[in-house]
Amino acid sequence: MSDSAPTQGCTTCRNGHLCLSRGLNAREAALVEDIAQRKIRVKRGESIFRCGDPLDEIYAVKYGTFKLTLGTAEGREMIAAFYLSGDIFGTDGFESDTRTSTAIALEDSEVCAVSWKRLAELAQQEGAIQKLVTQIFSTRIGRKQRLMLCLGSMRSEERVAVFLLDLSERLKERGFSDRHIVLRMSREEIAEHLAMQLETVSRIFSSLAREGILRVNHRKIQILDLQGLATVAQAGVQKNRAF
Questions:
Q1: Domain co-membership, 139 together with 178
Q2: Which of 34, 55, 69, 225 is the most exposed place for a label (fewest CB within 10 A)?
Q3: Which of 119, 150, 181 is the last residue of a domain?
Q4: 170 lies in the same domain as 115
Q5: Is the dihedral of CA 15, 19, 20, 24 positive or negative?
Q6: pLDDT per position as a tens digit, 48-69
Q7: pLDDT tens per residue, range 200-221
Q8: Which long-range contacts (CB under 8 A, 24 or more apart) does 6-13 make?
Q9: Which CATH number belongs to the domain containing residue 223 in this structure?
Q10: SS3 content of the chain, % helix, strand, coil (to 5)
């Protein structure tokens, strides 16, 4: 992991509509940009923070992909989330100012590091920035709730479909194709995230390909039938709403 010189600010970043300047006017965005000057490059497989580290900064993904891992009571590792360009992460453990998770780069990546203390001070002074901070935490909570819903009573096929649809929608928000996906995570990591067996994930990808919903070429996924994939996912969502 290494620091790099700042090359681009929040107001000119292609991820600005998703990231730390979203919803802010030019003056407010400049205030945030001023405290987001430190850029950190993280090589594939390296961690930017580990469980137990002090929580002094949060991070915005400039480019690349990260996984967030948690230790379970049984001593196993669970992947709680995947973060793409434009995502903000690193808020877990803010109640005690100590990290409760580990963030690892899935590819060579770069983040903008933001002092949590300075951002909190700005939030006290600027209503729009306070709203932004609230949205950051709301997004974190919402993502956890969706994961718990997914793991609660959905069948394996439904979990995989929900995962792929979520990834498709997030890529579309970033200006990429929502039908052509290059997975930055392995099948094993997807299985860990969805609390499934590796063999089950592989079987479901093959099954969706046979049904004409996906075309699968290693980590390259083409969604051939977006509505068909949504139908598989919706079955699980509707089932959970019934309870």
A1: no
A2: 34
A3: 150
A4: no
A5: positive
A6: 999 999 999 999 999 999 999 9
A7: 999 999 999 999 999 999 999 9
A8: 6/37, 6/38, 6/39, 7/39, 8/62, 9/33, 9/36, 10/36, 10/112, 13/62
A9: 1.10.10.10
A10: 40, 25, 35
